[in-house]
Amino acid sequence: MEMSRLKNILEAILLAADRTLTVIHLESLFELDEERPTRDEIRQALHEMADDYETRGYELKQVASGFRLQVRQEYSTWVGRLWEERPARYTRALLETMALIAYRQPITRGEIEEVRGVSVSSNIIKTLLERDWIKVLGHKDVPGKPTLYGTTKEFLDYFNLKTLDQLPTLAEIKDLDSIHPELGLDEDLADESADENPDTENVLPADVSSEDDVNENNGESLAEDVALDQDDSAADSAVEEVVEANEAEEVLSEDTSSDDQDGITEEPVAADKKAFNV
Fold first, then answer.
1. What are the Cα distances from residue 197, in Å, to 203, 205, 211?
2. What residues contact 160, with CB distance under 8 A and at least 6 apart?
3. Is 59:75 a contact under the CB 8 Å cutoff?
4. What tens digit of pLDDT does each residue of 76-87 get?
């Protein structure tokens, strides 16, 4: 069979298929033909097809389960607008659990909890099993026989991987919080605030003593103000008494002069004048 015709047939098959196809499966589709391509010819055709699609909006991708035609990642934004529903979003706990299973499989639930420091929810394990991302590999030969979990081909297909060797190394993994700051958790923020604010037990006595000092100082200043007010009041009273005495003396002198004109003797007036000059 000509290579150009074989590539067109393989392209049509992969476009119509709703799943990945292996080379063996593709080979079986030509069993009824007189000109049956060999397995090597199919592999060569797939290799050339991958080169031909370099300038296209889609690509031929080999994953764990076989080959498939898929949209290139740089065009996913526009293609995703064809569907109204939003893609599934996974919690940080689920992704951490999935990462531990992928990197340290086979692993038990207890070992995952030991690394994460918190218990693993049964819903997380259930979700991963329902999505066929993980599977039960067996049971560990320890008391209790805990279940051992590992990844599946569906997990590799979903993350566009052919083998586990294509997973990024630990040195290449960046801090998730620095990549996605919006994923910061409430407990992380609480820890940060706790670090910024030290224990209030050590601060409270100082604050209370400082308040006492302030109140004591305020009391002293208040007493001084009251004493000054009293002194001012006494001084004002003394001044008023002097002013009243002077006014009374002026009035008395006027009355004395008028009385002299009216024939009143000076002796009674002198007695009254002495009475006012206290």
1. 10, 16, 20
2. 61, 63
3. no
4. 889 888 887 776
d(CA 133, CA 124): 11
Confidence at 29, pLDDT banded by 50, 70, 90: very high
Which range, 95-99, 168-172, 220-224, has the best average confidence (pLDDT)?
A: 95-99
Q: Are strands 134-139 and 147-151 parallel, antiparallel or unpaired?
A: antiparallel
- 61, β-bridge pairs: 68
CA atoms within 13 A on the CB side of 55: 1
Residue with tokens 């590539």: 7
Map tokens 């919080």 to a residue.
177
Q: Tokens 């090597």 label which residue?
A: 40
Per-residue pLDDT tens for 219-253?
Answer: 444 455 544 455 555 545 554 555 555 555 554 44
State phi, psi for 134 to the nearest 5 degrees: -130, 165
The structure tokens listed for 4 are: 């150009």
CA 206 to chain centre: 33
User: Which residue matches tokens 């909890």?
Assistant: 113
Residue 244 CA neighbour count, 13 Å, CB half: 8
Tokens of 256: 């004395």
Residues linked to residue 135 through DSSP beta bridges, in sequence order: 150
Examine the pLDDT at 35 and tell me if it is beyond 50.
yes
pLDDT tier, 191 (very low <50, low <70, confident <90, very high otherwise): very low
Structure tokens at 197: 């604010």
What pLDDT band is residue 204 in, cutting at 50, 70 and 90? very low
Where helices occur in 141-278 by DSSP H, the ranges are 153-158, 176-179, 186-196, 200-261, 266-276
d(C-alpha 188, C-alpha 271), whole Å: 96
